[in-house]
Fold MTP protein.
Amino acid sequence: FIQMLHSAKKRDVLQLLRKAPEEMLPFVVEAAVAAQSVGSLAALSDFLDFGKESKYLLEKFLYAAAFSPRPSGELLRLVLDKLDEKQLASEIWETGIIAMGSLIAKLCQQKLCGLQQEVERGVETILVGLRGAKEESKVIIYLLALGNAVVPKTIPTLLDHAEEGPTAIATAAISALQRFPTQHISSEVKRAMRRIFHEKRKSYEKTCRLAAAEILLDHNPSTMDVINILLATSKMEMEAATFLLLKVRNSLR
């Protein structure tokens, strides 16, 4: 079916979408996303109305996009264009922003980061949204999207939210930083994680401190970091101390 859609013209795919029985429609939408041909994506663009379509069908489309193993820049552009539409349901907006992060990461894995304008537009969309977000829940969604995207230039933004944000935001930002490979865990990132774990500037919730310690231990830890983390466990609750001791033991192995 996907092979057939590869060679189908836009009008044929659009007719198929419009005439498909309701129970078959999600399957046809997923297949059109998987095909990623010019015709199938153009047909989806015309067919999907994010202001009117059922939430279930729109979520099917966004999940299919997010889980696409080798997405194209055109697929990301389609998601970006649809998220620009007004009056989106909050669930669709949330799924869309997180799916966008996943698409950006996969395009970058294909070495298309600097070659696709859509990637730059996607990253900027998330960063602009994050700067303008007032509600904590929206800030967290944008941080989750940055964690999915794993774009190195967003690390300073994540560090700022990790150190300065309230507990839920700090936790989301540190979780996003945990997604980055070792080559991007710089001395600047490590200094920030030390300040969080050792509470140099302010108090942090236990989960934030443990996540900060994990980053230090998982990415070429220095001898002093290991010693200082071990010393700090003597003042921590048994559960947290045991967790960190196991992390150190696993690193030694």
